[in-house]
Every structure is written in structure tokens, then in C-alpha cells.
Amino acid sequence: MTAHPPAIDTRELRKEYRGRAVVDGLTLTVPRGEVFGFLGPNGAGKSTTVKMLLGLVQPSGGEVRVLGGSPHDPAVRAQLGFLPEQFRFQTWMTASEFLDFHGRLAGLSAAERRTRVPAVLDEVGLGGRGHETLGGYSKGMLQRAGLAGAILARPQLVFLDEPTSALDPIGRVEVREIIERLRAQGAAVFLNSHLLSEVEQVCDRVAFVKRGRVLTQGSMRELMGGVLPVDLRVDTLSAELLADLGRLGELRRTDTNTPGRADVELWLTRDDQIPAVADAVHASGARLYALTPRRPDLETMFLDLIEDTPEAARAGRGEASRA
Ligand SMILES: Nc1ncnc2c1ncn2[C@@H]1O[C@H](COP(=O)(O)OP(=O)(O)OP(=O)(O)O)[C@@H](O)[C@H]1O
């Protein structure tokens, strides 16, 4: 393995089932320390891609490298974490036994397992519950236990398939924090989720796939075409301030209907223009009540790109007969 190869590198990756390409020329690079969102409608080929990246499904063509090596290499596999959407567990095991078992499979020593198992249980919010059997766990607790298994051996690349589908809002925030910690530790996270608001908050880059092909990929900003919408509220909007704002960005909307209040939607191109907006407001003598960069709306982008009518989605499910 070379010094810092990307976490994921695929070239023209392809998988056919019965002569039909379900992954069709997929080229992706995910560097270390990045959270990558992999989005697409049902049947787009996301799970098949993940299985090829994990070495569980043999590609029909193309190249795949994970952490600089082959997903079949045990040394590479030892650095991968995986939380499948429907993760199966042994109901008779306690959570601690389950994690200890996984730790053994991942090659952790007994001493490491003794400290690491309670530490990950704490990290996923199951501190003090490790002695209970998984058969008595709720759906959300099982998902947390699965996540603990995925991060147990300090993986360099973690695949999370719908990691929060069974979780309450607090659990979702906690999972987001875990993903952010993984990134801070330099690991890459490959996230598959239908919860776009969640993806928006945590992913550095996303790819949209449909019928096994990448429609587009990039950071939120790139996907938005380099536009940063900002909502501004001031008490008075002078002609001079309006002209200054117009020089900084594109004025998309101004609302001065309410006395003592003016709302402006301004489209900037870069974060570092935001302080200049505040400066212009102060220079005009107006008082600033809000200056809020708006998140690019992934759901709108997704629907625009995928253009899946309910009919198309039903047809997609109809063809989803698995061997
Ligand atoms: N083992 C298999 N044999 C035949 N066809 C398969 C097999 N596995 C997947 N497929 C087909 O490949 C296509 C992509 O499936 P895949 O599970 O990768 O999609 P997905 O994007 O993960 O969907 P979802 O969001 O619904 O989980 C589907 O049409 C599916 O029927």
C-alpha cells in the first residue's frame, strides 16, 4: 500500500445481473477524512456498489481499490467497518459478547477488547447496557449496537447504510456526532441515506446515482453551481445600501412591506463575502437583525436530478427481483 491512497477509488466499475447492468461505469474517488453521501432512488445500484467495495460481490468489469488495496486483502478488510441496513445479530448474545466476538474477528487482542468494548458502547449511547441480551434490545438500540460493531476496530473506512433509520431525533444527532468524530480521526465515511436533511448536514461531498450511473457528484456548493444564498434582515434599507449589496452579490428578492424591517435575499458566491455584507450594513447606518447563509437544499436537487415519478418508482420496484 502506498502512503496515503484514497479511501475509495473506482474506475468504470460495473456489475451485470443476467446481462443487465445494475452498476454501469461507476468512477468515484473518496479521500481519507471525507464523509461521502451516496444517494439515489430505490434500485439505483447503491447496495450493489457497497457490496463490491466490500469485496462481497464480484464486479463484472472495471477497477476497485479501497485504502489502496484490494477489498479481498485481509489487511485491507481489517480496516473496514460496515453497518448494513438490515443487520443480523445473535439474539442470545449480550451486546458486550457480540462486540467482543466482532473484535476477535477483527484481530483485536483480549486486552484491547476489554477497554474498547465498553468505550464504543458508551460512544453509541449504550453505556451500562452491555450486559443485556440483544434479543431484548429495541430497534434503535440494535442499530446503535450495529454501529458500535462497525467502529469497534477503529476502521479507516466505514460504510453506513441507513444508519439512523430506527433512531429517534436524539439518536440521529448522536450518530451525526459519531460520523464527525470518525472524520476528525481521519477515517472516511461512505454514507447511504434517504434522509437528505441529514446527509446535507454531515456530508462533505455527495454523488447522485441512477440506474447504476453517477448523474453528478461534488460538494454541496459545487452542486449548487457555486451559489451561496444569504438571508439578510435590517431595520432600514437605503438606496445606498441596496447598491452596495448589489455590488457584493446578486439581489434576488427584497421585501420592505413591513415598516421598520427589510428582508433581502442575496446570492453570494463565497463564504468570505459574508463579513463584507455586515460591514456594508453598518456603514449605511442600518441595524442588522439577521445574516443567515442558507443551506443548499439537497431534496430539491435530488428531485430535480432524479425526476422519478411515482410510476417510475413503482416500475423500478417491479423489476427488483433478486436471484
Ligand atoms: N443478486 C442479485 N441478482 C439479480 N439482481 C440483483 C441482485 N442484487 C441486486 N439486483 C438488482 O440490481 C438493481 C440495484 O439494486 P441495489 O440493491 O443495488 O439498489 P439500491 O440502490 O441499493 O436500492 P435501495 O435504495 O432500494 O436499497 C435492482 O434492480 C436489483 O433488482
Automatic annotation (TrEMBL):
<dbReference type="Pfam" id="PF00005">
    <property type="entry name" value="ABC_tran"/>
</dbReference>
<protein>
    <submittedName>
        <fullName>ABC transporter</fullName>
    </submittedName>
</protein>
<feature type="domain" description="ABC transporter">
    <location>
        <begin position="8"/>
        <end position="236"/>
    </location>
</feature>
<keyword id="KW-0813">Transport</keyword>
<dbReference type="InterPro" id="IPR003593">
    <property type="entry name" value="AAA+_ATPase"/>
</dbReference>
<dbReference type="InterPro" id="IPR017871">
    <property type="entry name" value="ABC_transporter-like_CS"/>
</dbReference>
<comment type="similarity">
    <text>Belongs to the ABC transporter superfamily.</text>
</comment>
<dbReference type="InterPro" id="IPR003439">
    <property type="entry name" value="ABC_transporter-like_ATP-bd"/>
</dbReference>
<keyword id="KW-0067">ATP-binding</keyword>
<dbReference type="InterPro" id="IPR027417">
    <property type="entry name" value="P-loop_NTPase"/>
</dbReference>
<keyword id="KW-0547">Nucleotide-binding</keyword>
